[in-house]
Amino acid sequence: MGLPDHFMWGGASAANQCEGGISEGGRGLANVDVCPAGPDRRDVITGHKKMLRMDQEHRYPAAEGVDFYHRFREDIRLMGEMGFQVYRMSIAWTRIFPNGEEETPNEEGLLFYENVFKECRKYHIRPLVTISHFDCPVHLIEKYGGWRDRRMIGCYLRLCRVLFERYGDYVTHWLTFNEINMILHAPFMGAGLCFEEGENEEQVKYQAAHHELVASALAVKLAHEINPNNQVGCMFAAGSAYPYSCRPEDVWEALLTDQENYFFVDVQARGYYPSYAVKRLQRKGVCPVMAEGDEELLRAYPVDFISFSYYNSRCIAAAEQETAEGNLFKSAKNPYLTFSEWGWPIDPLGLRITLNEVYDRYQKPLFIVENGLGALDRPDENGCVEDDYRIDYLREHIRAMKAAVEEDGVDLMGYTSWAPVDLISAGTGEMKKRYGFVYVDKNEDGTGTGNRTRKKSFYWYQKVIETNGEVL
Ligand code: BGP
């Protein structure tokens, strides 16, 4: 019993939420840079408010992030101290191709990530690289309208080729798109989509999704061609949909919600559009236009493994119910659960349920690449953060994960919690919604020293890793 020896422990972050330095090193402007903090954020990330430049009235938290761009050595040293075996991170596309379609990549950007990988190597930390974590050059949004245009596939593959060729010595594990199903809920973040008045949004989203799915399959092909040791995974925002009651109508609605999310993985892992999706897209008149050969490509290059984020389960009712928040979208309030300070359900058993469901469905190795608690941390007079609430959350989720592996036989490659060092929230743009084992002295208005301090959970997680999950 116990987790396998090769199980990988670590943490996960995203370039736009931690790096900052957006006008350094020749970097170009990206969609995530122009997502402001505050009340307009929601409309911007959903594509309903077009804002492709920064203005004076808003604050743009990605501009500074938590300064990983300058402090990565310190941050990776802290990860090393916790015993990380894997660090999931993402590449800022515009550091490599500032406008997305230059002939040659930007050497300064390439060097930055090379240095990051070298630093990881010092501590025997293996990078797991998300090629696009809510990331799209603004130039490509202006020119092509983001992923609604098929030409995005070529731009993305140009990035992939450079990454696979340049970093072959450092990286063998890749994820094509972060939370690919979020294109339905945050289409500007997920695909650089801004909607025009009166257009059929669903059609645009599924067309863009199709392009990302083809790009993902072609990335798998390319990764394997360049280095047969490369392993490429998909990544989706998971969390099983529970029926609000045993009323068949509730069960049916829950099934539809699950299918909406599994659709993406069905294509990436099984290699074809599932029949339920074909029928539904046809009925709604929103079938994506496919090019000749797309279906063959999808079939020929499924992913090697499946990764996902899990923060909460969802609860679905056919009739109107009180709602609860959750990772980027709301669902009915589950009366049996407690909730985080941001109103997200807390459901550790839901992780075991999700792991079983996903493994049953695909029979491919899984990787939990995000899980954690966004909470307000209050340092005491000595600057210490006693984050027992975070430890409790993680402990229960890791227990549930272990049960799925040890008792249910789920094949799980590893676990990377979100996020080792505090960073900017994707959903709200807030700094005060913290996930880290390491506290960053930075306030909501951007003030603070940026200094890093170990929280109580830092030492707890260190022990968890040291004992391969035996001491929780
Ligand atoms: C996922 C994203 C992450 C991350 C996380 C937590 O959707 O992949 O980028 O931020 O959720 O969400 P939030 O930052 O909104 O609390």
Describe, in plain words, how this protein is organized in 3D.
This protein is of the alpha/beta class and 472 residues long. It is globular, with a radius of gyration of 21 Å. The mean pLDDT is 97. It has a single domain (8-466), classed as TIM Barrel (Alpha-Beta Barrel), CATH 3.20.20. The protein is 39% helix and 14% strand. Strand 11 (338-339) and strand 12 (345-346) form a beta hairpin. The protein has an eight-stranded parallel barrel, surrounded by five helices. The protein has helices at residues 15-18, 41-45, 68-82, 93-96, 107-122, 138-144, 151-166, 187-191, 201-226, 248-270, 275-284, 294-300, 348-362, 388-406, 456-466; strands at residues 8-12, 86-90, 126-132, 173-177, 231-237, 241-243, 305-309, 314-316, 323-324, 331-332, 338-339, 345-346, 366-370, 412-418, 438-440, 452-454. The site of 6-O-phosphono-beta-D-galactopyranose has 16 residues, from loops.
Distance between the termini: 16 Å
Task: Give the tally of structural domains.
Answer: 1
Task: Choose one word for the global shape.
Answer: globular
The number of helical runs is 15
**CATH architectural category:** Alpha-Beta Barrel
Segments where pLDDT lies below 50 for 5+ residues? none
Structural class of the secondary structure composition?
Answer: alpha/beta
Gyration radius over CA: 21 Å
CATH top level assignment? Alpha Beta
Report the major sheet: 8 strands, parallel, barrel
- What is the beta-strand fraction? 5-15%
